[in-house]
Amino acid sequence: MGKYRSLLLGCGPRAREHAEVYRDIPNMEMVACCDLIEERREEFKEKYGIPEAYDDYETALAQVQPDVVHLVTQPARRAWEAECAANAGVKAVIVEKPMAVMPGEIIALDEIVRRSGMELIVNCQRRYFPQFRDGVISEIVREKLGDVYFVRASTKGNSMSMGPHMMDLLMLFLDEAQPESVWAMGFDIVDESYQAYHRSPERLLAEYWFPKDIRVIFDCDADALGTLGEESFWMHLHFDFLGSKGRLYLTQNKDYWYQTEGMAEPVRGESSWDTQGWAGQRDFTAAVAEALDGGKPHLNRFEVGKAVFNALIGAQQSIYEGCRINFPHSFTDQQWTDLRGSMKAAMEARQGAGQ
Predict the structure, then answer these.
(1) What domains can you pick out in the chain, each with its CATH number?
(2) CA 125, CA 133: separation in Å to the nearest integer?
(3) Which of 63, 252, 259, 285 is the most exposed place for a label (fewest CB within 10 A)?
(4) pTM, rounded to two decimals
């Protein structure tokens, strides 16, 4: 089979990693990029040797007729971007996380995928780090720790910035289990920088009930414990698993170790964004072509990403209702808007009172 032709929408900083890995993927070729800012798209085109650059997404789709589209844009118009791709006959869309922010957006994406048959794949590329892709961590959780009863998951990012990565890995480690219920609390709304697009309560602490009586404390908060000793905001991604026979300690960028009863010393392994990130993005992207060729389903296929989003948005419904809620959630866009408005008003009232 020939090469899959790819179009990249959005030539900002995050797009560099999407483009760089193409040099090591023989059956995929990035043939065009698209961005509203002329200087940025022309510089991107020149740097990565991309044949064409466009300022209009729909024009690019019509003229390039790509097989694969990378949506490396802010999460503001995901449904429209995906709809345009589906209407143009695109086979697969790679979308940056979060693939949705409001409840209605995931419903719209679900309809587009079902109607068109187009693959929609969320760029949570950490699943393609070897210790995750090859099942090393999942096997430790499943076979080494006894009955897992508690997990702490902690990140400094809010639930729509680092939260999708953390929930995605959590579900992977638990054999794709989905939560049965959630109770959450949260406060503060920030409309600056990335938070203006990754819209979520800036401070969210949730307790999830998973099958097999597994309890998860899920902390997405600028004041979260995160990863001890970590300095980079984006590198705070930490898990503790407690089981009846042992413990697993895992970070995104400071390796992992586990120890079970009877072991004199813990077993240690690598977990490093610095050394594994590039290859993870490469293998993630190459797996799109493999899936289109009829090979293994992509680890970040739409149904996986949808489950991650629904788990995260369910926590916001719990904040809105002030109680524990059962899944599937029933949160609406209007309730999401009302919650955001009430939280912002409460924050402004506190600030006005000098608190």
Answers:
(1) 4-125+278-301 (3.40.50.720), 127-271 (3.30.360.10)
(2) 10
(3) 63
(4) 0.95
